[in-house]
Amino acid sequence: MALVIGVDGCQGGWITASRRDARAVFCRRLVTLDDLFTDAVAPDVVAVDVPIGLLELGARECDVEARRLLGSRRSSVFTAPIRPLLNATSQAEASQVRHRIEGKRVSIQAWAIVAKIQEVDRLLRSNPIRRDIIRELHPELCFFFLNGRRAMSKPKKKAAGRLERVSLLRTWCGEAVDLALRERAKLGCESDDIVDAFAALWTAERIHRGEAMSIPPIPPLDSHGLRMEMVA
């Protein structure tokens, strides 16, 4: 029986939405992604909202193309950090490193996701077999394809934006997303973390069925052999 999992980062950990075959969706909170591989049944596909595969300099092709496709929602796609930033221990140090290489600084928002990028990077570099299991996505790109190649019209942090995305998810998973949102307090996360995890699960199922799109179609590899792509 296939087990597929969608993952979104949250404060202090990760929120997952998983489904085995056509069963009900199950959500839980994890401290680390490695926890997914300590269960009795290992996942077949893990689709996660975090950059995988990093350049030494410049912007990844997948980030550039995702922003082009999303149009009005392009600002939701942050440029993935360059690999040298992963060795920094503070935002100030990361800014110094990037300024030396690219003449640019690192924002607080960009620095906030570096720890999770480091976690996934270490996981995949030390476990090459998991590189075909764990794939990168961006929730807004998932919604773009789920919505017939149309970007969402409202920001996800707004109530109207959340309703827009939840309504779209219902066309695929019924009330499962509503049930998960009612458990938000127990999961200890924000509503948009759950919504994005469901979008990731939609993509994970597409990956398992062989229906997902990779952007770019033939992803380049970084210096450690990790694919630089977004899947939807």
Keywords:
232 residues; alpha/beta; five-stranded mixed β-sheet; two-stranded antiparallel sheet; 40% helix; globular
Compose a concise summary of this entry.
The protein has 232 residues and is an alpha/beta fold. Helices cover 40% and strands 14% of the residues.
Describe, in plain words, how this protein is organized in 3D.
The radius of gyration is 17 Å and the shape is globular. The protein has helices spanning 61-70, 91-102, 108-112, 114-126, 139-146, 159-173, 176-182, 184-187, 191-209, and strands at residues 3-10, 13-20, 26-30, 45-48, 134-136, 214-215, 230-231. It has 232 residues and is an alpha/beta fold. It has a five-stranded mixed sheet. The mean pLDDT is 96.
